[in-house]
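Recap from last week: sequence in, structure out.
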Amino acid sequence: MNKHDPLSSVMTDLASANGLPNAHYIDPQTFEEEKRSVLFANWSGIGFGKDIPNHGDAKPVEFLGMPLLMVRDSEGEIGVFQNTCRHRGMILVDEPKNIRGTIRCPYHSWCYGLNGELRAAPHVGGPGQNKHEKMDFSKLSLIRIRSYVWRDVVFVNIDGTAPEFEEVHGELMERWKEFEQPMHHGGEGASVKLELTANWKLAVENYCESYHLPWVHPGLNSYSRLEDHYNINELGKYSGQGTLVYSQFKGDNGETLADFENLSEKWHEGAEYIVVYPNVLLGVQRDHGFAFVLEPVSCEKTVEHIELYYVKTPEDAPEHASLRAQNAALWKAVFEEDVFVVEGMQKGRHGVLFDGGRFSPAMDGPTHCFHHWVASQISKGRAAE
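Predicted structure tokens:
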């Protein structure tokens, strides 16, 4: 592995800093290092609460090769477990389902409660003997993964070493505290899945800056111009962009979606789009929000899972069906416009003489913040080895 120090090029002085070297985008060994030090060591997004809405719902998720299981228990709380039986390592759940009783291993029928506790191990002590004096069930629960749900995104800290989620992201949660109120998935048509031939970080970098709007999103830029945007540069915490001219989507007769309640004047025509490091992209507007979970499949492949949320459920606001559909179509078009530049940057990273690139001191602050954070996590991981 190339043991370059990424912080040596990704300095805090934006005017003289380079971006992350090519290896962070095209080298499988560097990808493995990032898997441990960036994605497993921090609060990474793996899915959405809307995918397990009912008590007993379970959904298997593979995150960087690790089998996980999201479960909504009998109290309505979401838990995440390693999707592996404690007996012989069999996968427990291989497709989304509702579990009415226990999580049963299909191999030898060991059974676990929705809280992960081992409830039964048939014949473990011999035929007809379901207990054994040397088997302590209390020590054989499913391995629980630290998890936290915010804005319907299910975050996990795989290695268990990160500070509490509220401590890590408390400042961002405070920034958006006005949006801490019920929101509901937009239902059919409110989900977008994009498969990218690119490293996951390039999707982050493109999302968090507005510099590219005039050329990549000419339609969006026609009413939310580059000069109407501002950078959000919180070094070591989060980064992104905001706009001062968000305009509600209107129907043919001037009708609009319902607004979130009691928002301050800032949000009447403002909106923000921020990266929750490492792999979750969030957007808030007065009448809806959205969330991306970036799934790093491999060094050069990423899947974007995107969901849109509203103040009211589709069932409670059937009169807004057309507005939701048009709003979703607009955003889907914007998201798809980014694909060619993200994939184009990935191709460009195979240029062996590329040095990580130079940043515009005025326009690239959000991307630089993200690069610096990634480099810091890698240096931290190496120091712990």
